[in-house]
DNA sequence: TTTCATTGATTGACCAGTCAATTAAAAATA
DNA sequence: TATTTTTAATTGACTGGTCAATCAATGAAA
């Protein structure tokens, strides 16, 4: 075992293991031993690096949040028009990387956790605000402000709605059809505007 | 303490207590003792009537499901047109009785639980199918079949989406604005159709 | 005197978090 | 260079607490 800078490696491994464990169990009801085992270390080490289970879970959520944020930034950079910006944001949420069993399960579990944990709620609010302002950055050029606001809320709810409803289907998640419904919603609102 | 037919009374009290406990804790992470205490009985009695915690939770979910179903039937009975049928279904989900902290928390918690419990998943599927077919009963008269299908999916996702996003806001749930977004979605699709 | 309602006490499992002990690399010192 | 010392990484074993589930015992109506 090398001695140099194990900490970042172990933290990353433990966070990945947490997502995988949550994905398999389908809830936050996972033990530190299980997580640590998946990461190939003892549960004592997980406590050593994260202090408490809570902090590991929060770190995991922050990781999910930052991955999604990075994907969104990349997608937005490639979008030339306001319309494309909105489509890009929808696409990101249903990309193969994001719309995955483990990740979806983790998001849902965190939503539930947010009801009792102020820290989690704060993190989720960051996500919600960021999504909203990203969506608005495109929508305000396409619709009157009040209308844009409404559509942004609708798209956000649709995204979370399809995430949660994923729990009903078994087998591979069908991202394409979910994205199609949201895109259709957007197009309909835009067509209506032009008319 | 009367002796006659305590069972239905106690079952009802325990189910109500379960919803209240879940609502307060914000998750299914509630103890049998807590639930039993709220119902004014010992945890042993809860086990006596329900056998296991799992069955109490399932019974609670079945209760939620049947309340929602009853409300939906009542609302549909008063709807004269296909358009009103759809509006009525939206309204039911955001009525004061349904869109309540405790009930919302319970639905979300059950969604998460459904990921690991086949029994819960089955129950949620019943809810989803019923909502879908209720929505379609109005939409097929208003839109071409494929379009109706798409809108039904959209409305269902919006409802669940606003339920889950309720977790982000604090204070009283704002049902009116959620319902407004969904109604706007519906109207937009109908106007588009006429054009 | 049978049958239903009810509980206190107990058990057994599980689990987060702690800690003292071990290894080995790295840094400091001779 | 050879040594001692410090520091980081790591774990097995343990503790305290929690909780679902069981059960034998009590009460009280029919």
Give a concise summary.
By secondary structure, the first copy, chain A, is mainly α. Chain A contains nine helices and no strands.
Descriptors for this entry?
195 residues; DNA-binding; homodimer; 0% strand; mainly alpha
Write a structural description:
The structure is a homodimer of 195-residue chains. By secondary structure, the first copy, chain A, is mainly α. Helices cover 76% and strands 0% of the residues of chain A. Chain A has nine helices and no strands. The mean pLDDT of chain A is 94. At the A-B interface, helix 6, helix 7, helix 8 and helix 9 of A face helix 6, helix 7, helix 8 and helix 9 of B. The first copy, chain A, binds a DNA duplex (30 and 30 nucleotides) through residues 1-4, 6-7, 10, 31-33, 41-45, 47-48, 51-53.
Helix content of chain A: over 70%
Greatest interface (CB-CB under 8 A), with counts per chain:
A-B, 44 and 44 residues
The rounded Rg of chain A comes to 19 Å
Query: What is the multimeric organization of the chains shown?
Result: homodimer
Count every beta strand of chain A, where a strand is a DSSP E run of 2 or more residues: 0
Distance between the first and last residues' Cα of chain A: 68 Å
Tally of individual helices of chain A: 9
The secondary structure category of chain A is mainly alpha
Q: What portion of the residues of chain A fall into strands of 2 or more residues?
A: under 5%
Encode the helix/strand succession of chain A as letters. Answer: HHHHHHHHH
What would you call the shape of chain A?
elongated
Largest sheet of chain A: none
Mean pLDDT of chain A: 94
Which stretches of chain A are low in confidence, meaning pLDDT under 50 for 5 or more residues running? none
């Amino acid at each position: 075992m090398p001695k140099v800078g194990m900490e970042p490696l172990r933290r990353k491994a433990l966070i990945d293991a947490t997502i995988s464990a949550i994905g398999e169990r389908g809830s936050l009801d996972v033990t530190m031993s299980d997580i640590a085992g998946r990461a190939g270390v003892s549960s004592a080490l997980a406590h050593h690096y994260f202090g408490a289970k809570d902090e590991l879970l929060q770190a995991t959520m922050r990781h999910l949040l930052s991955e999604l944020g990075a994907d969104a930034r990349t997608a937005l950079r490639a979008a030339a028009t306001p319309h494309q910006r909105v489509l890009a944001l929808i696409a990101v949420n249903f990309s193969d990387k994001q719309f995955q069993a483990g990740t979806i399960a983790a998001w849902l579990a965190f939503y539930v956790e947010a009801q009792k944990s102020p820290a989690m709620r704060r993190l989720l609010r960051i996500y919600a605000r960021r999504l909203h302002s990203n969506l608005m950055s495109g929508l305000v050029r396409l619709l009157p402000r009040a209308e844009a606001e409404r559509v942004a809320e609708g798209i956000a709810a649709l995204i979370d709605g399809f995430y949660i409803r994923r729990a009903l289907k078994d087998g591979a998640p069908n991202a394409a059809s979910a994205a199609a419904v949201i895109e259709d919603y957007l197009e309909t609102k835009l067509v209506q505007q032009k008319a």
